Amino acid sequence: MGLVVMKFGGSSVADADKMKKVAARVIDKKKQGNRVVVVVSAPGDMTDDLIAMCEKITATPDDRELDMLLSTGEQVSIALLSMAIKKMGQSVISLTGPQAGIYADTTHTKARIIKIIPTKILKELSRRKIVVVAGFQGINPNDDIATLGRGGSDLTAVALAAALKADFCEIYTDVAGVYTTDPRVVADARKIHYISYEEMLEMAGTGAQVMQGRSIEVGKKNKVDIHVRSTFSPADGTIITSEEAITSRRGAMEEVLLTAVTFDRNQVKLSVVDLPDIPGIAAKMFGALAVGGINVDMIIQSAAQDKRNDISFTVSRSDLKKTQKVLGKIRKDLKAANIIYDKDVAKVSIIGVGMKSHPGVAATMFTVLADNKINIEMISTSEIKISCIIDNAAVNKAVTALHAAFGLNKRQ
Amino acid sequence: MGLVVMKFGGSSVADADKMKKVAARVIDKKKQGNRVVVVVSAPGDMTDDLIAMCEKITATPDDRELDMLLSTGEQVSIALLSMAIKKMGQSVISLTGPQAGIYADTTHTKARIIKIIPTKILKELSRRKIVVVAGFQGINPNDDIATLGRGGSDLTAVALAAALKADFCEIYTDVAGVYTTDPRVVADARKIHYISYEEMLEMAGTGAQVMQGRSIEVGKKNKVDIHVRSTFSPADGTIITSEEAITSRRGAMEEVLLTAVTFDRNQVKLSVVDLPDIPGIAAKMFGALAVGGINVDMIIQSAAQDKRNDISFTVSRSDLKKTQKVLGKIRKDLKAANIIYDKDVAKVSIIGVGMKSHPGVAATMFTVLADNKINIEMISTSEIKISCIIDNAAVNKAVTALHAAFGLNKRQ
Predict the structure, then answer these.
(1) CATH number at residue B236
(2) Sign for the pseudo-dihedral over CA of A59, A60, A64, A67
(3) Which of A47, A224, A302, B4 has the highest Cβ tally under 10 A?
(4) What is the DSSP letter of A144?
């Protein structure tokens, strides 16, 4: 008998009919002979509704009280889903994050899970109950409710799977799995059957919005196989697992260079022009940005000419104003001639563990882009990823061309 | 420095503007030099909305899960009210029922409070914080959330006031206090300044809907003075206190016979006609009704003729169908000729500790009704209350006449 953690997002439990479908799916899993723990998010728009209520009171809510407010959404979901499961004749119990033994730190609204003590869950499982746990929340050392931030329910599911030594962690979502690229851009994008934690982390960091990086890291650290699949279809989705597991599976198959092509249109490029070429300038600039809470993605520094040079970097579009404010304050200090920005850029990335042993991959990428007359403005690489900043208008062309050039549309 | 428990009902926290008004009122109380604990209900229609969501899933929800669901309403209120108070510059913390140390029994949806351990509340008060507690909920011995049933937030407030030895328990509501009768029926009804627990209990039992009996009983048992007053006016309301306290206050004033006239239109009279006059018949009948969960209010049995007699009794209008079903089942057994019911009845009551020492009060009531050509169908009395079942159409006339006859419109 296996132990499975099933996680359903807000769109899967948005109304009574969807709740009932989820309940049926959970019961199926139980009837296949498994012990089942279900993790759910708040129904549909409830979190947004709660935030709207909060905004009518204050623009700067206390973080502890915001967690007190937002955690009710998941509590509504676990109660309703448990009722639906019970109505279908199965024994079930709902548990809030604190009741489930999920201990978090004191960083309200984006707490980290410190530990899980699943005594209560195991007791209820041993009574042959389906256990429905509220995602996104835990109890902190002050006995307060703390929420886990964006993607928090995925994190709850993966961490619970680790603590319970579950055989599988299934993340049910409104897409059928992880694709070689966005099917809305490239029609012959294919579902990936197996992907490594490392590749998935790179995908999350380069624009693919299937899962937050934190959950994948917890999965990797604890060797939890994560199965991303559709709530509304019985078909298998994508299994996120270790590189070794994938290599042994792929062994008999053709050699795989790339796993996916991703893109991120949420990028702005800033250039600080005509800086003095002296030590400490970059440290001063990026130090100020870090203090301002701005996440800098790619950085290039031009070769110095006449003891002056330029530094360019990218940030999220939503951080542009904040970035301009920080740079405006330190510009005199930096002795920079000018600060310019370009909102019409995007990042295109290719990802694959295969590129570790194939040094020609980067050259192929640059050639494909050049053949398509796409200018590369910035480049950054990791062991299993190459990213290029290009003109936003050229994204679809670039993604389509790269997807085809690396044969991602062909493979089984 | 005093300690005050302030309780605000759902209509007082129905939207952001009302929340802000409540916050201002709470802060005023603090600035007057008090330590302040606030108890709140779920905002406006939220409980109804949650029940509607539940009904789309199942008509027979599990009680534990229903409590899990419904307790979120108060949690939303405490978070939002705390944000509003903080926004106005005061230090504040919200606590769920479990966090506040409110321990309940395992009777889900209508749990009793077993004990209160207010350690956390006292600690936060000592840090000069306003403490906002979720009404209507506690934690039970299984570490589950349990709700306290109708009027549960009042109960939380009064029980907390007892546990904290508060100087006052203030129940804020949308009426200005307790009146000598319903001002919608009798225009010159007056606000009662002081009323005893016993009188208030009789009022709750005879149709006045200011507070549930349970809260008043807890107040009486623990000698908590309860101040019922308007959320939207600074004027004093009605203080519910001990008979001795009232007697000593009233001593210098004119002698008071009556405190209030109440009525209850939610009554149905049933008559089981032509029963054999043998021992055990009434026991069999009312035993069956009790097993069916039906609360019987007034009972009369006619004098036997020819070894046959009739039994009449009243139940809540909402229990009529259930009552008919139970009686239908045992009718043959009872050898009753017929069962008839009359939906056009109502109960009119007069209440006052003064009637203990004035045996003429009942006679005056019957005379007033007779003078107004109102027929009395049933009578029931307690030491401080007389109730009569009359024609529903005559209620306004009866209440107006009794209110005037006992001088309730005249007193200061």
Answers:
(1) 3.40.1160.10
(2) positive
(3) A224
(4) -
A210 band by pLDDT with thresholds 50, 70 and 90: confident
- Cβ distance A57 to B143 less than 8 Å, yes or no, reads no
Residues B57 and B192 in one domain: yes
Q: Structurally, how many domains does chain B consist of?
A: 2
Per-residue pLDDT, B252? 47
Residues of B in contact with A144 (CB under 8 A): 99
| A292/B153 Cα distance (integer angstroms) | 45
Give the span between the Cα atoms of B65 and A316, in whole angstroms.
42
| A155 falls within a domain | yes
Q: Give pTM, 2 decimals.
A: 0.88
Beta-carbon contacts below 8 Å between A and B: 108
Q: Which helix (H) or strand (E) holds A116?
A: strand A113-116
Interface test with A, best of B71, B72, B85 (most A CBs within 10 A): B72
Neighbours of B327 (CB within 10 A): 20
Residue B60 with chain A: CB contacts under 8 Å: 87
Q: CB-CB: which of A15, A68, A120 is closest to B78?
A: A68
Please answer yes or no on whether B80 and A57 come within 8 Å at the CB atom: yes
Q: Determine the pLDDT at residue A255.
A: 62
Q: Is residue A184 located within the same domain as residue A41? A: yes
Residue B121 within any structural domain of the chain: yes
Residue B250 confidence (pLDDT): 62
- Interface residue B88 vs chain A (CB under 8 A): no
pLDDT tens-digit profile of A319-363?
A: 999 999 999 999 888 888 889 999 999 999 999 988 888 878 999
Is residue A42 located within the same domain as residue A181? yes
Q: For B387, how many CA atoms within 13 A lie in the half-sphere containing its CB? A: 22
Q: What is the pLDDT of residue B212?
A: 85
Cα radius of gyration (chain B): 24
Give me the residues of chain B with pLDDT under 50, please.
252, 412
Cβ contacts of B129 on chain A, cutoff 8 Å? none
A62 at interface of B, judged by CB pairs closer than 8 A: yes
pLDDT tens-digit profile of A266-286?
Answer: 999 999 988 888 888 888 899
Nearest CA in chain B to A14: B53
**Pick from A65, A76, A78: which is nearest to B94 by CB?**
A65
pLDDT tens-digit map of A120-154? 999 999 999 999 999 999 999 999 999 999 889 99
B256 within some domain = no
- Residue A81's closest chain B neighbor by CA? B57
User: Would you say residue A410 lies in a domain?
Assistant: no
Q: Which residue of B has its CA nearest to A96?
A: B68
User: Does residue A326 sit in the same domain as residue A221?
Assistant: no
Residue of chain B nearest A20, judged by CA positions: B57
Q: Tell me if B16 and A56 make a contact (CB, 8 A cut-off).
A: yes
List Cβ neighbours of B168 (8 Å cut-off, separation of 6 or more).
B2, B4, B5, B161, B225, B227
Query: Phi first, then psi: what are they for B16, rounded to 5°?
Result: -60, -40
The interface residues of chain A toward chain B in range 264-293, judged by CB-CB distance below 8 A, are none
Boundary of a domain, candidates B215, B249, B283: B249
Distance from CA of A197 to the nearest CA of B (A): 36
Residue A14 in contact with residue A22, Cβ under 8 Å? no
Inter-chain CB proximity B69 and A79 less than 8 Å: yes
Q: B286 and B189 in one domain?
A: no
Q: Is A194 helix (H, G, I), strand (E, B) or coil?
A: strand
A326/A385 same-domain check: yes
Q: Which one, of B358, B288, B274, lies nearest residue B326 by Cα?
A: B288
Q: Which of A195, A223, A251 is the last residue of a domain?
A: A251
Residues B315 and B196 in one domain: no
Residues of chain B in contact with residue A69, where contact means CB-CB under 8 angstroms, are: 75-76, 79-80, 83
Residue range(s) defining the domain that contains residue B320 = 261-405
Q: pLDDT class for A412, splitting at 50, 70, 90?
A: very low
Query: Could you tell me the two tokens for B32?
Result: 């007057």
Task: Please tell me the distance in Å from A363's CA to the nearest CA on chain B.
Answer: 56
Q: Residue A294: give its domain's CATH number.
A: 3.30.2130.10
Q: A381 with A325, same domain? A: yes
